[in-house]
Amino acid sequence: MAGRRDWTRxxxxxxxxxxxxxxxxxxxxxxxxxxxxxxxxxxxLYPETGHAHAIGLTGPPxxxxxxxxxxxxxxxxxxxxxxxxxxxxxxxPFTQGALLGDRIRLTEHFLDPDVFIxxxxxxxxxxxxxxxxxxxxLVLDAARKDLVFLETVGTGQSEVGVLSIADTVVLxxxxxxxxxxxxxxxxxxxxPDVIAINKMDHPLAKTMLNEVRxxxxxxxxxxxxxxxxxxxxxxxxxxxxxWEKISEHRAWLEADxxxxxxxxxxxxxxxxxxxSTRARRHLxxxxxxxxxxxRLLDEVxxxxxxxxTAVRExxxxxxxxxxxxxxxx
Amino acid sequence: MAGRRDWTRxxxxxxxxxxxxxxxxxxxxxxxxxxxxxxxxxxxLYPETGHAHAIGLTGPPxxxxxxxxxxxxxxxxxxxxxxxxxxxxxxxPFTQGALLGDRIRLTEHFLDPDVFIxxxxxxxxxxxxxxxxxxxxLVLDAARKDLVFLETVGTGQSEVGVLSIADTVVLxxxxxxxxxxxxxxxxxxxxPDVIAINKMDHPLAKTMLNEVRxxxxxxxxxxxxxxxxxxxxxxxxxxxxxWEKISEHRAWLEADxxxxxxxxxxxxxxxxxxxSTRARRHLxxxxxxxxxxxRLLDEVxxxxxxxxTAVRExxxxxxxxxxxxxxxx
Lengths: 329, 329
Hints:
Two copies of one chain form a homodimer. Chain A has a seven-stranded parallel beta sheet, with helices on both faces. Chain A folds into three domains: 1-46, no CATH class; 49-256, P-loop containing nucleotide triphosphate hydrolases (Rossmann fold, 3-Layer(aba) Sandwich); 270-325, no CATH class. Chain A has helices spanning 9-17, 21-32, 36-45, 65-78, 129-142, 157-162, 178-185, 205-217, 239-255, 258-289, 291-301, 307-319, and strands at 53-58, 83-89, 115-121, 147-152, 168-173, 194-197, 228-230. By secondary structure, the first copy, chain A, is α/β, with parallel strands linked by helices. In chain A, helix 7 links the parallel strand 5 (168-173) and strand 6.
């Protein structure tokens, strides 16, 4: 364990640059711990980033995202591309849960020196999920990974928020993903760049395909139209087509300056997201630690002080916000 | 339209207290507009609130929540209970979309003077969804509605966040809600207080019932165990059982001080949520309006300034937050 203390800002940055596994593992652990050293290293490395193609992979639990990921990695490794994976599992209270459950499907890649895989739970790291994911992506990007996959479990807002930094977002569905189809149809879930319908052997796969087609036909017909690919990840079927579509999306992004535009918007969004999460945490700590603020909540509970007045007093005290700031009136 | 200007703080509060429909409609519109008059009226009325049983109704789109709601309202109106409904539809850019789509199922109740129904889109009102829902609930509570239903479309975090103020949360599912079952199983979606499986005539209804039972068997077995009810809302079947379970939950809450505890925690959560949303909006405006902050984002885009340093500068400038506040290190 003493070896852990050996990294300095310079050696850690150099190790990451060289793609050294120990350096990568250490840097991401420091990111998760919100360690100042991680902050400094990422700051040093940031000018060298922008190389990696960041691919988000999302979908409801159980559709086989990990199998898809394992199959995609197998394919791109055959083309000699280097790979990083950040797997976000909000149901797991643990970080580095890489040996449990779905992650088992990725084990075949654990020994490949050009594949770096890291699982992250939503609790247990201090920096907030958006921040940790962003910083880890930058670390893997600086390590010259050609592709960085960001995998999330679930399609809720917090998970999809993590994907806002991706260049290409892949949504995985399977027969039975009725809720996701409805959510796409109702405009609650955003339309992804590529859709994979996994478990294509299922008798209802064609029905699902038609449903997805119908949903997409309601969307915009200009610009990029999201392709739908049928896959059977466990047997590796459809994976080449899926990868082709992902690559086509990347080529489309690069062709007319769209990549630049999307990254500008993604980065701005990400900075805002991280700032907002930090402000929220600061507020949380303040309300927890400040006796005066706790007294306000007691008065709300006793119906002596209305909630909005309590909100105003809290914002004034914590953020020096005046009555008109952010109030909408 | 001239009549709209007649309301004063006193007459509006008196109108709400008396349950006057025009006063209720006006007060909630003012809430949606973030009008200072709404804030004052709710502040005046707050000490009189706490009477209503707030019932949240959520579930993926398409399961028939509006039909369930219409059937429940029919039932409780037969028992002479007065009803308020706040229907949150995040896919609708319009407020008061009460004549469109699903809302059509509630039309039979539109002329009942003891039922007040309001639909809200997520855009088009300034106060943020949690704030608008909370304030509207307080208005309906002060109008002595016995029951206030909070209906949301979708089961994402933003929708379910709205329900954090409810005393009882009902999750509606149907055969085909596979994603929701998986999300419950994975611990991504919180276990509700009562589960309704609608469209009970569907051949896969029993399968769904077994799946839900299995998920619940993994949860805690002490305290309240969420009952599962099969319904067919359009024909009104199972609605009495559903209502019985909702009432039993309320009775359970009241029996051992749990209602008090839950409301304390809900209110604290809600105040924090509203404060956090306001802080976020303040940040959004600041980043949009402040040239210096926009310049920071340009530097991030040009890879000259790393994202976290930009975040720190933004938080320092907007919220006077120091490096150690909310940074986790």
